[in-house]
Design goal:
- The protein is mainly beta.
- It has one helix and 16 strands.
- It folds into three domains: 61 residues, SH3 type barrels; 59 residues, OB fold (Dihydrolipoamide Acetyltransferase, E2P); 57 residues, OB fold (Dihydrolipoamide Acetyltransferase, E2P) (Beta Barrel).
- A hairpin with a 5-residue loop joins strand 4 and strand 5.
């Protein structure tokens, strides 16, 4: 199916010259003078090579037909990452190059959306927000109550995030998966 370049988003799968590419980032640039363009960074699914492409925002690009279904994360081993379809209990193994940087967010039972093409997983979409626990952070400094002052903290999954001063070690927080930004203290 043909779409205009400006509608391409992260996670889409494009068909260019018979090869499939998973979109890693897509940005639209509108210069003051000249033609608006869409800059897309992609990974070729066949061999994992990263490619950058630039199109005019009105150019037509072929989007591949992919099946998108929800899966629950089970575990990781030498073969890859194992997921299970919650309704049919059908299992699928996904290689590490498809998961990429998303592996730090995966926890047992997490519901993710996998895109498959001809029964092979080609892209993963995480939930917008995940809950993590803080393992270590700087102590609260008395009098440092400015709302804009954030301090670095380390999470159980190895991520470094910036948190407000009142957050201490052992606190569970919610972060955004796209930029690791602090959202709120977990409500559980």
């Amino acid at each position: 199916m043909k779409v205009i370049a400006s509608s391409i988003r992260k996670g889409n799968v494009l068909d260019i010259d018979g090869k499939l590419y998973a979109v890693l980032t897509a940005q639209n640039f509108h210069p003051g003078k000249g033609t608006p363009v869409t800059q897309v960074d992609m990974r070729r699914i066949a061999d994992g090579v990263k490619v950058s492409e630039r199109w005019r925002t009105t150019e037509q690009v072929e989007r591949a037909h992919v099946e998108e279904r929800d899966y629950d994360f089970l575990y990781e081993d030498g073969e890859g990452f194992h997921f299970m379809e919650p309704n049919t209990y059908e299992q699928i193994t996904v290689t590490e190059d498809v998961i990429g940087d998303s592996k730090v967010y995966l926890t047992d039972g997490m519901r993710v959306s996998l895109k498959t093409h001809q029964e092979v997983a080609i892209a993963i979409e995480l939930p917008m927000k995940v809950t993590v626990e803080i393992t270590e952070t700087e102590p609260v400094v008395k009098g440092q109550t400015a709302s804009s002052s954030y301090k670095p903290a380390m999470c159980t999954n190895g991520l470094r995030v910036m948190v407000p001063p009142h957050i201490g070690a052992g606190t569970r927080i919610v972060i955004q998966t796209d930029d690791n930004a602090y959202v709120e203290r977990a409500r559980d």
